[in-house]
Amino acid sequence: EEEEEEEEEADEGEFVPPPPGDQPEDCPATLQERVKSSKWNIRAYGLQELAYNLYTSRQQGKAIAGSEWEETSSLIQGGLADINVNVQERSLEAARVFLETAPPEACQQFSSASAEQVVKKGFASPKTSAKTQQLVLKMIEADCSSSVIPVLVTCMTWKHAKTAAACVETALKALELFGAEVINARNCLLPACVEIFDSNVPQVRSLALPLAVALVQHLGPGIRTSFGRLRGVQAKELDAALANVPAGRPRPRRATRSTKGKLASSSKPAGKRGDLKGHTKQRQELEEAMEDGEEEEEEVEVEVDLLTKLGKSWATQVLKVAKWQEKLEFLEKIPALCQPSGAGSFRLVPGDFSEVVKSLRVLTGDSMVLVVSAAVKGLGLLGSGLKEEFAGSCKMLCPLMLDKLKDKNRGVVEAVHVTLDQWLQRCFTFDDVVDPISNALSKGSTPKVRMETLKWIGRGLRANKSNKRSKAGGIGLPSSLCEAVVGCMNDGVLEVRDAAFEATTALMGLAGSSLVLNLAEELQVDPKRRKKLMSMGSG
């Protein structure tokens, strides 16, 4: 245990760059010229010298002007893009020292400009892979996770096996070190994790399980439903792994720079003796906040004034920005404000959400799947928080959501399922959306839409929460939809027939086997399936 603690402390410690040795021959006079030299050994020497100068300046408390930070950042970025791996290695070291030394604004600008270069180029070479991971973690520690985490997520699906696997490994380590809130695990990592279970890269696919287990540990057992559409073997492996997970949520092992600052300020003794108790309590609260929300799901519902916190211009600004990363940053404000601890119950203060809904609806058609997923989840959170007050919007958006089930991206489909579940639990019953569901189950829709819609219906019937309020005799599904579900067991596509069978068995648990079996006979369902239904009903 002592060895583990020492490793953690070493992992959190500052990086001490090695001092530069003897200058190579024909070295230019200035540092800038050395870093930009045509000879790789001089460029590498210059970057090593730059890193050491930054370190000694910090140790000696020397002030550095803002323009110097910009120039230093530019020199390091040039090294990160270098074609020589030795120069890249020295630039990764210099970047790490830069993030430990530079002010927050300079760190943000550097990370935003270099994150993609660092991840894509650094992980591609075995010589620089380890130092690239250290630099990515340092970016997160410098409160720049919004710049680097989306890049990690995007590169998890790359065909370059080493880069994709390194991105998953780094994301997992970041989750374990910093916790779910800091890296926005719910909105970034969770959809990506679901998708990499089907990765064509064996190294990536093998990392999907440990990442999924870590996500459930940090975000709570409620997110297990996000993995509801895994293959049978994968689902069994995940459940077996989760069965051995200790109770409680892990505590982050490393704090970000901003959190360290708050902890340090709360540690300072006040002028008055009586204030010491308040400081101690404040520090304890900050340390508990780092534990990333260990409260159980049954916590008190928190009221959130989302419209005020987003601001009046949010709905227009999110559509004006050009880069997908900027759109994602705007969208991530919704879960961050609704669920600041990454989990928990909340209720939104009612208001005019029409402009917000319009913008989210537009973004569900974006070309970047991460933006689409975030927009879909945002609509789900509005339903969770506004409940019946959002019912009208949910009914209007239900056809759009059901149509999005045909999306080729699994992360988008997962996001739609999460949103539909939230709406069904909080906003409406199946009775309220008969027409959209009937259209989704009709032969005019795609087989994938029919299959995914049937999965949602089956899951909703099994949950039997808001559905038990149904007007259709308490069975949870109107008679017309009962007929549509059972009728899908005659579909020409095997996957649709299987999904219909699962939904029909769920219907039997609520409506009774005799009603469902009679309906199956009327619709001339395949005798083998009817026989299987009968055996399940009698069992």
Automatic annotation (TrEMBL):
<feature type="compositionally biased region" description="Acidic residues">
    <location>
        <begin position="1"/>
        <end position="14"/>
    </location>
</feature>
<feature type="compositionally biased region" description="Acidic residues">
    <location>
        <begin position="287"/>
        <end position="298"/>
    </location>
</feature>
<dbReference type="Pfam" id="PF21041">
    <property type="entry name" value="XMAP215_CLASP_TOG"/>
</dbReference>
<dbReference type="GO" id="GO:0061863">
    <property type="term" value="F:microtubule plus end polymerase"/>
</dbReference>
<keyword id="KW-0963">Cytoplasm</keyword>
<dbReference type="GO" id="GO:0046785">
    <property type="term" value="P:microtubule polymerization"/>
</dbReference>
<dbReference type="InterPro" id="IPR048491">
    <property type="entry name" value="XMAP215_CLASP_TOG"/>
</dbReference>
<feature type="compositionally biased region" description="Basic and acidic residues">
    <location>
        <begin position="272"/>
        <end position="286"/>
    </location>
</feature>
<keyword id="KW-0206">Cytoskeleton</keyword>
<dbReference type="GO" id="GO:0030951">
    <property type="term" value="P:establishment or maintenance of microtubule cytoskeleton polarity"/>
</dbReference>
<feature type="compositionally biased region" description="Basic residues">
    <location>
        <begin position="250"/>
        <end position="260"/>
    </location>
</feature>
<dbReference type="GO" id="GO:0051010">
    <property type="term" value="F:microtubule plus-end binding"/>
</dbReference>
<dbReference type="GO" id="GO:0007051">
    <property type="term" value="P:spindle organization"/>
</dbReference>
<dbReference type="InterPro" id="IPR034085">
    <property type="entry name" value="TOG"/>
</dbReference>
<feature type="region of interest" description="Disordered">
    <location>
        <begin position="243"/>
        <end position="298"/>
    </location>
</feature>
<feature type="domain" description="TOG">
    <location>
        <begin position="14"/>
        <end position="251"/>
    </location>
</feature>
<dbReference type="InterPro" id="IPR045110">
    <property type="entry name" value="XMAP215"/>
</dbReference>
<dbReference type="GO" id="GO:0005856">
    <property type="term" value="C:cytoskeleton"/>
</dbReference>
<feature type="domain" description="TOG">
    <location>
        <begin position="299"/>
        <end position="538"/>
    </location>
</feature>
<protein>
    <recommendedName>
        <fullName>TOG domain-containing protein</fullName>
    </recommendedName>
</protein>
<dbReference type="InterPro" id="IPR011989">
    <property type="entry name" value="ARM-like"/>
</dbReference>
<dbReference type="InterPro" id="IPR016024">
    <property type="entry name" value="ARM-type_fold"/>
</dbReference>
<feature type="region of interest" description="Disordered">
    <location>
        <begin position="1"/>
        <end position="28"/>
    </location>
</feature>
